[in-house]
Amino acid sequence: MSARELVVLGTASQVPTRHRNHNGYLLRWDGEGILFDPGEGTQRQMLRAGVAAHDLNRICVTHFHGDHSLGLAGVIQRINLDRVPHEITAHYPRSGQRFFERLRYATAYRETVALTEAPVDTDGPLARTPAYTLDARRLSHPVESYGYRLTEPDGRRMLPERLAAHGIKGPDVGRIQREGSLNGVRLDEVSEARRGQRFAFVMDTRLCAGVHALAEGCDLLVIESTFLDEDETLAADHGHLTAGQAARAARDAGVRHLVLTHFSQRYPDPGEFERQARAAGYAGELTVARDLTRVPVPKRR
């Protein structure tokens, strides 16, 4: 299993279908698990996908429409039932605080886990860890909505031939990485810059500045494409994107792997989303998400 991968738990918009559960997406990132938009049925989909409550470290809710949040009650109660031993942090729009509290305490149960509430009310960083920075950006939807972006810190890639030329091997490789120089040899003489990986999660929104900021330079972009291009007016009226709009945003942002999801039940042929994305000029890796799909984060260049 990849150390960095997206597990798709559900892909339906508004209502589930026989083949699509409500939304739910788990990002595995170096031993951490970030659950995005747990809609109704997420707990069961986690079971089907082999995802345990113990795998969760953060929950990120973009907005409080039911298909993106009704699963919170069951997920939070399962976290407590399983006595997850570590802290879990929940991010969500502050304007939806009352909805979060209602879902968190929808029924009686025994709280056993430290669930930290960290609501979002502005663009910017939400958390910094050694492995990533988590940011939020405001989107354009009839209710307040935020997208999320995870950015790995930039690092260095060691160059074996240069290390060998300077006689650096074994434990000394670690020393020069930690200390920046060794016996007069600088780290930049035996390594090159390695850009950190980037992931973004963009749900219900019209095209807006937030979409472009979140998508910029992403290795993996998960983005809603509720409608096909012929229904662009309907998409704008309801605060959504079309397949072509999502693909053009990804193309212009230099996205390496595009994941389209959140599909309206009105379209019987999922292949049409891929055809329209390609027609819009997106040439990178492309996944039209299906429930229980696993998508690895692309390897570094």
Quick description:
This protein is an alpha/beta fold. The protein has ten helices and 18 strands.
Can you give keywords for this protein?
seven-stranded mixed beta sheet; alpha/beta; single chain
The portion of residues forming beta strands comes to 25-35%
Helix fraction? 25-40%
Structural class: alpha/beta
How many whole angstroms does the radius of gyration measure?
21 Å
Q: Mean pLDDT score, rounded?
A: 96
Q: Profile the largest sheet.
A: 7 strands, mixed
Number of helices: 10
| Cα shape | globular
One letter per element, helices H and strands E, the order comes to: EEEHEHHEHEEEEEHHEEEEHEHHEHEE
Number of strands: 18
In whole angstroms, the N-to-C terminal distance is: 20 Å
**Could you give the order of strands across the largest sheet?**
6-5-4-3-2-1-18
Runs with pLDDT <50, length 5+? none
Record the SSE blueprint.
Elements: E1 4-10, E2 24-29, E3 32-36, H1 42-49, E4 58-60, H2 66-69, H3 72-81, E5 88-91, H4 97-104, E6 115-117, E7 124-128, E8 133-138, E9 146-151, E10 155-158, H5 160-165, H6 171-179, E11 181-182, E12 185-186, E13 191-194, E14 198-202, H7 209-215, E15 220-224, H8 232-238, H9 243-253, E16 257-261, H10 271-279, E17 285-288, E18 294-296
Parallel strand pairs: 3-4, 4-5, 5-6, 14-15, 15-16, 16-17
Antiparallel strand pairs: 1-2, 1-18, 2-3, 7-8, 8-9, 9-14, 10-13, 11-12
